[in-house]
Each structure stands twice: as C-alpha cells, then as structure tokens.
Amino acid sequence: MWEKIAYVALVKVHQQVLEVRTSGRSFTNISREVQQVVAQSGVSTGLCTAFVQHTSASLVIQENADPAVLRDLARWMSDLAPESRHWEHDSEGPDDMPAHARSALTRSSEGIPVARGRLVLGTWQGLYLWEHRATGHRRRVVVHVSGVS
Amino acid sequence: MWEKIAYVALVKVHQQVLEVRTSGRSFTNISREVQQVVAQSGVSTGLCTAFVQHTSASLVIQENADPAVLRDLARWMSDLAPESRHWEHDSEGPDDMPAHARSALTRSSEGIPVARGRLVLGTWQGLYLWEHRATGHRRRVVVHVSGVS
Amino acid sequence: MWEKIAYVALVKVHQQVLEVRTSGRSFTNISREVQQVVAQSGVSTGLCTAFVQHTSASLVIQENADPAVLRDLARWMSDLAPESRHWEHDSEGPDDMPAHARSALTRSSEGIPVARGRLVLGTWQGLYLWEHRATGHRRRVVVHVSGVS
Q1: How many helices, marked H, and strands, marked E, lie in chain C?
Q2: Which residue of chain B comes nearest to C139, CA vs CA?
Q3: Which of A90, B149, C59, C80 could, after both became Cys, cross-link C107 (CB 3.0–4.6 A)?
Q4: Taking phi first (over 0 means left), then psi (-120 to 50 degrees means alpha), and beta for anything else, what does residue C58 get?
C-alpha cells in the first residue's frame, strides 16, 4: 500500500527556537510544541527538523503510552554510561561526562515529515527532549519546517 | 576534491508511505524501495528523509556486502539491551522493552541526499529497517523527498 | 521565548562532497568545512544535512571545548563495542566489526538548520567525523543545503 502526495511550488521556510525548561535526568515530551511550530509555518506537506543545541541533552522518539518505558530507558542508560566509571573529564561534575556519552548514543537532530499540516508521528510515538544532567536546565531546540502549503 | 551542484528553482515535494512486512528480529534492506520513491518524485538534486513510525523497530545504515556484519550487530545488540535484564515495562512481552531500547540507540529518521536522481548511498551502504520484536510486524516508513528536477 | 523567521520563495539547493583524510580512531572537527559549504550555497534560512558514505566511520555532535571529552568518549565506546569480543565478521581485521557497531550507535546523517547564513550549532557544539578504523582513511561526507537566500 502506497499513499502519495506530490507538489511543484514555491517553498515555505519557517524557523523557531523553542526554549524548554527541564528538570534533572528527565524526559520532556515536546511533540505538541513542535506541532505548534508546524501549524504556524503554514506548511501542509514538508519536513520538520528538530535540532538540540547542547551535548548533554538529546532528542529521542519513544513510546508515549506507558511511562514505565521511559523509566526503564533511563535506568538502562545509567548502566550503559555510568557515573561510577572513571572519566577523565570531571571538572563539570560526575554527571557531565555520562551526559555527553548518553547524548552521543541518542539524537542531536530528528527529521519528521509533515503531511496535511501535521507531523507524521505514529500513534504511540512522542518526541522527547532527554535531559541527561542531574539538575534542570534551560535547553534550546531549533525547529525548522520547510515545504509547501 | 569538491563536487558542486547548485539550483534556484521551484521545489518539488513528494511523499509516500512504504509498508514493510518484517520477520522477527531481522534486517530488511529497503534501499531499493526508497530509491523507487526517489525516482517517482522526479527530484534530481535534493534530500530524501526516511522516518519509521514505530518505537520497537528502527532504521540503520550498514554494510550490504557480508551478511555476517548484520548477524554480529544483532548478537551484540542483544547483549547491550538484553531480554534477561529486569525491565519494569513487561506487559507486552519480554522482547518489547529491549526493542524500545535498541530503537533508542539506532535511528527513527535518516536524511540521505539525492544527486542525479539517486540516493547518494556509498558503495557498501544499505538502508535497513531493523525489526527488534521477536515476531514479524507490518511496519510503516514515511519517505519524504524534496528538491529540484 | 521564540524567534521566528518565515519565507515563501524559490528554493536554493546546493550540494558538495567533502573529502576528509582521517587518522586511525580519531575525531575530525568538520564544522568549519561544512559552514564553508553553507556560505557558498548562499542559503540564509534553510537546512544543512551532512551524510557520511561509510559504515565504519560516523558523525557525532559533541563538545568542542575540552579535548578530554572526546578521549573519554573513545575509551568508553571501545568498551561498549570491544575488539576483544568474538565477531563472526573478521575478514577485514579485528577493528572492522567494532567500527560497524560504533557507527550503528552514532550517526550516518545529521540535519542542522541554517539561520542568517550560519549553522545553528550551539556555542559548545562541534560536528565531528569519527573514524572508527585503526588506520586513517579518505572519507566522503556529502553536504546538502537547501533553503532561501
């Protein structure tokens, strides 16, 4: 089964910076805020790119139904890049280098197509900003939308 | 060495949903199907974005030559996010939470430039849909192509 | 706080192949070279996509300040996908399969928005080509820029 949409037109380009206040080691579902940017862009068919301007917080698309999924992910990631490891870079605290490592394993940017003015996220998908530092921060996510109306 | 292509033109935008039937814990090479979408788009120079609408299957670009590479990847990933770990989220079976974890480590979206009407995949690169669940599923990959003809 | 930019216009599309000579198991900061492509594109507001045409080298955005961060990342990744593991695919040397695994965990493509003619990288972010093989290689990164002037 194929669904097709095709256009030849002038391009619409829209960009906004989304500021997100996080709490320490947490997931913030930013799907709604990013969808609002898409709505404001007026783009009907196109591509939305989210980009996080940090290396100790990252993006990940995960299940938005059972919160236990996110708790499991957080615990498992803590074991994969543990604070208890000896890290040479420790001047910014024991949580900083694990935060960089966890960011390297997840996403700095995510590209999500837009159809009929909406992000094509699956039913159970949420776009999350994953704060890897132990304390909350003010994080910047650049949202870029381009396409046709 | 630099190769350059540059255009100012009307944009072409093309989108299709690709349905992929997978078998359990497997790699499906979808390079050809995605290239077909690029061909149908009529885009000569542009960007193709593949996006998987699930959080227990993911995308990865890997070697398409020796199948042992994929077998090694699968075994190693099984150790990295094992079923034997205690996961809080276990209501959908012991293979579900490892599938989410393995998806978090690989890709939900991949952006591949298009040149002369073709994905610029390297000689040994294939784009794979990685099914992380123990049984086969019908998976949806949204393919978005934009650029100029 | 929101910053907004919006355009309806003819699209500019620009593509270049960047050749990068690496040394073995190293990070090469390619931010400046990619920014030069953005400058040459004449795109003011748009999207830049970097794509690596290999599966034993990858892209990652990491801190560009303290070099100890990159050393830590390299050591930790060596433990995550170690050469000492038994890999079935060993015909290209003991460093090849770990290189594929490390590439699978990091990025084949990265999408970075462009604003006012510049990549919107955060202050401490650098875009790195991560060579995972034990010896240096000549690597190809395709840089695609699209947007409006």
Answers
A1: 3, 9
A2: B122
A3: C59
A4: beta
- Considering only CB atoms, which residues of chain A are within 8 Å of chain B? 1-11, 45-47, 60-63, 66, 68-69, 71-73, 76-77, 80, 105-107, 110-113, 115, 120-122, 124-125, 146-148
Give me the total of CB pairs closer than 8 Å, taking one residue from chain A and one from chain C. Answer: 122
3-state secondary structure of C102: helix
How confident is the model at residue C1, as a pLDDT? 36
- Compare CB distances from C47 to A101, A103, A144 and report the shortest one's residue: A144
Phi, psi of C138 (to 5 degrees): -100, 115
- Per-residue pLDDT of C66-119, as tens digits, reads 999 999 999 999 999 999 999 999 999 999 999 999 999 999 999 999 999 999
Neighbour tally for B138: CB within 10 Å: 9
For residues A72 and B85, give the distance between their C-alpha atoms in angstroms, rounded to a whole number.
10
Taking the CA of residue B116 and the nearest CA in chain A, the distance in Å comes to 18
Q: Supply the Cα-derived Rg of chain C in whole angstroms.
A: 17
Say which of B71, B76, B113 has its CB closest to residue C51: B113
CA–CA separation, A113 and A24 (whole Å)? 30
CB atoms within 10 A of CB B116: 8
> For residues A93 and B124, is the Cβ–Cβ distance under 8 A?
no
Q: Where are the beta strands (DSSP E) in B36-108?
A: 45-52, 57-63
CB contact (8 A) between residue C121 and residue A85? no
To the nearest whole angstrom, how far is the Cα of A133 from the nearest Cα of chain C?
14
Pairing state between β C26-29 and B138-148? unpaired
Q: What is the pLDDT confidence band of residue B114, given thresholds at 50, 70 and 90? A: very high
Residue B41 identity (one-letter amino acid): S
Residue contact B6–C144, C-beta within 8 A: no
The average confidence (pLDDT) of chain B is 96
Give the pLDDT confidence of A102-124 residue by residue, as tens digits: 999 999 999 999 999 999 999 99
Q: Which of A141, A53, A55 is nearest to A96 (CA)?
A: A55
Cβ-based contacts under 8 A for chains B and C: 121
Q: Tens of pLDDT along B14-30?
A: 999 999 999 999 999 99
How many angstroms away from the CA of B134 is the closest CA of chain A? Answer: 18
Half-sphere exposure of C24 (CA within 13 A, CB side): 5
CA-nearest residue of chain B to C144? B113
- Comparing C92 with B6, which gets the higher pLDDT? C92
d(CA A11, CA B147): 10
